Amino acid sequence: MRKKQIGQTVSARCRQRAEAFRKRVVLTFAGFVLLFTLLYLWLGRLTQSDALMQAAQQQRRYTLTVSESRKAIYDCNFLPLADTFSETRYAVIPGAENITSVLAAVPASRRDEVREQLESGRPFLLSDAGRIEAPGVEAFQVPVRTASPQLAPHIVGYLDSSGHGVSGIEAGWDAYLSEDPAVTEISCQLDALGHSIPGLTPEIRREEADGAGVVLTIDANIQKVVENVGYRLLKKGAIVVMDPYTGEIRACASFPAYTAENLSEAVRDTENTPMINRALLPFSVGSTFKVVTAAAALEQGLPLDGTYTCTGQIDVGGQIIRCHRRSGHGEVDMIDAMMKSCNPYFIQLAAQVGGENLLEMAKRFGFGEAIPLSGDIAGAAGSLPAESDLIHPAAVANLSFGQGDLMASPLQITRMMAAACNGGMLVTPRLVQGTTRDGELLTPAAAVPAQRILSPEIAAQLQSLLIHCVMVEEGQNALPDNTTAGGKTATAQTGRFEGEEEYEHGWFSGFFPASSPKYVITVLSEDSGFGNETAAPVFAEIAEQITAHGW
């Protein structure tokens, strides 16, 4: 009996446990069903969310940047010096309806490459193509930053493949010019395979440039004249045009020049070196320096009418230095000697002045001093003889007519000539006039005040001497047909020879009109011989064209 009761008790407990387990299973299953139902409803709600739908669309959106425009580079009249040309650039969204038209418009040499781009189904840009009119092809007019012919290439500079400045204003002002670019973009939808979806209209976004940029002192009209004349008459050399009162550089050109299309070729050209800016590099200057010698003599009280008899040579401490006119100039005063460029006259004049005083006057005129312009654009300091060297009479003699250890850039010679014709003020050459926000109004850059280095009386005497050189001297090729002028020629020895012939630089630096100068122009004709034959005619033609246009 007891065994039967025990069995019934065990059986009842087993049934109770089984029932409890069954309930737990049912409750657990019901909980999972409820959980998955709630998760399903939540996921369904998420898929209908506008934010997520937009995010999904963005993941399938492909944006093609058609162009990014840098800020402008202007001349002094707010004319653009860069972005002066444009090209047609096509945004191609591949599709069966435009394959034939696109392939027909590209050069045969590029068709295989373009066909692969079309077959990929991914949008791409195309610029070297003829006119294309087809569905899925959008045409844009895009500014070309540096194109041939580029005005003032050594000043403007060029960009690297990433669109950043490498030289010139492009490099010196790169951070400013590249910030907040004006962007043109085209966006389209892609499928899961990354192909454009036919029938969907692409979205185009254009940002117009606001006109902001850097404003140079360069005058594009004068720069064009300078380059046209220089390319025709100079094989190697440089030309600088400057306002003698403000130091603002109106034109600066170096020959030969380079173009953006031939950079690699230009870099390899070690014979002609078109990449360098000769206007800023030092050269032997020759007789243009006689302006400084005359200034030092006049300041020492030596008279214009003091005479010297040139026999064709002069003995300097036992060293014979010859005049370019071997028969001599006879009796000359300072006016005659400047016109005829008589070396013995200026040698004996410098001996009276003294080497220390002559060197001090040269420094006053800015020789031996670098001229920073903007960023990496700067005129070289050149060189002056050491004061200790000028205890030797021959060193003073060489300096008196611009030879020996003296070297200066065309920009420095232009600065010297400006002081001789502007009343005796040494100006600081300027290349950057300021910036603009809208291409119309100027925010000017700080200017460095001019320094008086000569009395107005001595400056007037120098100006008169230089006017005689052009207006009175016979056979002077610097005389323009339609205006008056003053200036000085030079034929500078270089110490470099080809056989028995020495290379010589031809120079002319002068101003016009004569009595109220508006411009100073310096011309260097490198390795070409007599300045009156090679450089002076360049000055005359530029002065004539500027005068004819009334600039």
What is the CATH architecture assignment of the largest domain? 3-Layer(aba) Sandwich
Report the mean per-residue pLDDT as an integer: 90
Structural Rg? 39 Å
Strand content: 15-25%
Shape: elongated
- In CATH terms, the superfamily of the largest domain is DD-peptidase/beta-lactamase superfamily
By helix and strand content, what is the structural category? alpha+beta
Domain count: the total is 3
Q: Which runs of at least 5 residues are low in confidence (pLDDT < 50)?
A: 55-59
Topology diagram in text:
Elements: H1 2-47, H2 50-59, E1 61-69, E2 72-74, E3 85-92, H3 99-105, H4 111-120, E4 124-126, E5 137-144, H5 153-156, H6 168-172, H7 174-178, E6 182-189, E7 203-206, E8 213-216, H8 220-233, E9 237-242, E10 249-255, H9 263-268, H10 290-299, E11 308-310, E12 313-316, E13 319-322, E14 330-332, H11 334-340, H12 343-353, H13 355-364, E15 371-374, E16 377-379, H14 393-400, H15 410-421, E17 425-426, E18 432-436, E19 443-444, E20 451-452, H16 456-471, E21 486-498, E22 501-512, E23 519-525, H17 531-534, H18 536-549
Parallel strand pairs: 2-8
Antiparallel strand pairs: 1-6, 3-4, 3-5, 6-7, 8-18, 9-10, 9-23, 11-14, 12-13, 15-16, 17-20, 18-19, 21-22, 22-23
